[in-house]
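How a chain folds remains the central question behind the approach discussed here. In the encoding step, the backbone of a single protein was reduced to a row of integers, each denoting a local shape. We regard such an encoding as a compact summary of how the chain folds. The sequence in question and its structure tokens are set out directly beneath this paragraph:

___
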Amino acid sequence: MKILKIQALRGPNIWSVRRKKLIQMRLDLEEMEQFPTNKIEGFRERIETMFPTMIEHRCSEGCRGGFFSRVERGTWMGHVIEHIALEIQTLAGMETGFGRTKETKTPGVYNVVFSYTEESVGMFAAESAVRIAEALISATEYDVEADIQKMREIRERVRLGPSTGVS
């Protein structure tokens, strides 16, 4: 998989009028376009083990565990990366929750969109989510906690003070 572009959206946009803080990542799935999650042996078990709290991701199913149901039936890696990016931000103490993934006119190339609290954390989360997905696909170890800690450090370095951040 290859990230073609990452940009921060800061205001009303084509994805949402209400959600003004979104990351839009253009992602080429390359060979993974041929492998939805149900065709990757052990993928569901690995992602559930790495992120048990994703049981709360309702996804388009609209119910607890909806995302894991989608993974079981088969979904594309762009969708998985969207959910990973949201989850790692949440685990780092930044509630997000909005995401969308849509294929572009180019087969295998997706717009992966998700909300952020701090822009530089969201940018980091995009890249981290791709690395995590690649580790899950190949069944290799990945230190998710190190990325979560890095996001906390970025947030502390860049966020506004309490009185400035009120608005």
About this structure: DSSP finds five helices and four strands in the chain. The beta strands are 2-10, 21-28, 99-103, 109-115.
